[in-house]
Specification:
globular, alpha+beta, Chemotaxis protein chec, about 150 residues, six-stranded antiparallel beta sheet, 5 helices, about 20% strand
Length: about 150
């Protein structure tokens, strides 16, 4: 897709099938057909990056000092859980069992656009997280992102 930058937005509520497959949101399939990377995310969700975006992130990660124990630990957890995939003709990807276990994924999912990535959450876990964060979001007084909000 050349130099086109895709911003992942919105929330989708697909289901995992019996083989652990997820049908990707139709609006993002073309962007992800060249490949994607799934890995552990924070707050026990999964991060899904386009292959191109992941390559950029990996380049940044490579700059972390190997002398930093915290950086080494983060890299190990982040990269050891990473798997690459290419969606099939129906736009499906398989989520490996170790990643499904990490994120507590059962059947009902929430696929959340988070800018440079999609996040895959268990539907109930996402509802709980969102309820907690919406209240904090509405009541926020201090700047969270300098110059913006």
């Amino acid at each position: 897709m050349g130099g086109v930058i895709v911003v992942f937005l919105g929330t989708y509520e697909p289901r995992l099938d019996d083989k652990g497959r997820l049908i990707l949101p139709a609006k993002y399939r073309e962007h992800l057909q060249g490949g994607l990377v799934l890995t552990r995310g924070q707050e026990h969700c999964l991060y899904l990056f386009s292959l191109r975006e992941f390559e950029g992130i990996h380049e940044q990660l490579r700059q972390a000092p190997l002398t930093s124990k915290e950086a080494r630990s983060y890299l190990r957890v982040f990269l050891s859980g990473a798997v690459d995939d290419v969606p099939d003709k129906q736009g499906r990807i398989t989520i490996p069992s170790m990643l499904r276990t990490y994120a507590g994924l059962e059947r009902d999912l929430a696929v959340v656009g988070a800018g440079n990535r999609l996040e895959i959450w268990d539907s109930a876990a996402w509802a709980t997280y969102l309820a907690e964060q919406e209240s904090a979001f509405a009541d926020r007084e201090d700047e969270v992102i300098p110059g913006l909000f």
